[in-house]
Amino acid sequence: MEIPKSHPRYASLMTRHKLVEGHRNGLTAPEGLIAHGRGEALDYLLGERTTEWAARAQRAAAAALLLATRPVISVNGNVGALVPEDISALANALDCPAEVNIFHRTEERVSRLCQALRGSGCVKVLGDRPDAKLPGLDHPRAVCCRDGIFSADTVLVPLEDGDRAEVLVKMGKNVITIDLNPLSRTARAAHITIVNNVVRAVPELVKEVSELKRDLGAGKLDSAGLDYIIKGFSNGENLEGSLDIIRKGPLERLKGQRPAPNSGTDGK
Ligand code: ATP
Question: Is 226 close to ligand 1, i.e. is its CB under 6 Å away?
C-alpha cells in the first residue's frame, strides 16, 4: 500500500510498514512486532519527537561511545529492520563492530540480519559465529562474540531485554540503551538511557558523534571534555524528566481542544 506523505501519521505508518516488511524478509520476530506496539504507545504520549531529555542523553551517549576503548553496537530484529543504514553509519564512524544479538535466536534470522548490515555498508559485522557466553543467562540469550559484546567496555544495546542489560552492567560494562519505556528494567539498569524512538535516536546519534569528532579533530574538545559531558548527565533525572512528559505532555497538548459534541441520544 502506498502511504501518501501528506498523511498526518506518515512517519508512524512508514515505521510499521518497515517492520512488517522486516518480518516478511525474516529479520524481525513476530514478538518484535508486539514489542513495537508498546513502544509506539509510549512514543505517542511523548509527542513522537526527540524531547530535551532524549537530546541530552544522546549527547552523553555519543561522548561515552567516543571515549570507549572497545565500543560495540548490539543489533536485534527490530533495529536491523528499521535502521540498518544508520547503525552501519554509526559503527563505521566509531570504527567498531555491530553485533547481531537477538532474543528469539535462530541462525537463519541472525544470518539475514548480518547480511542486511553488510548490505548497508557496515564494515565490522559480528554475530553469526558466536564463541562466548554471558554469565548467568540461559543458552540462547547468553551467546555472543568474544571480540564483540563479551569483551566490550561500552555497549549500545537498543531495545534490550532487562535480564541481559542487568548482566552487562554486572560484567562492569558501560551500558547505553535506547528504549521508549522509562520504566523498563533495561531503562533503569543502563547507565545512559535514551528515551526516544530508534528511528529518530540512531540517526541523531550519528550526527552527535560526527559533531563531537569534528570538534576533537579541530582541537576544540579533548577527552576531558567528553568526560565532562558524561559526568554532567544523570540517568535518574533523565528518566524522571521523560516520565514527567508522559504524565503531563498529552494533557497539555489537549488543552483548549474540546471533543466533538455528542451527536447521539446521550442516554435520552
Ligand atoms: P525489560 O525487560 O527491559 O523490562 P520489556 O520486557 O518490558 O523490557 P521488551 O519486550 O524486552 O520489553 O523490549 C521492548 C522495549 O523496547 C519496550 O520497552 C518498548 O517500549 C521498547 N521499544 C519498542 N519499540 C521501540 C522503538 N521503535 N524505539 C525505542 N524503543 C522501543
Answer: no
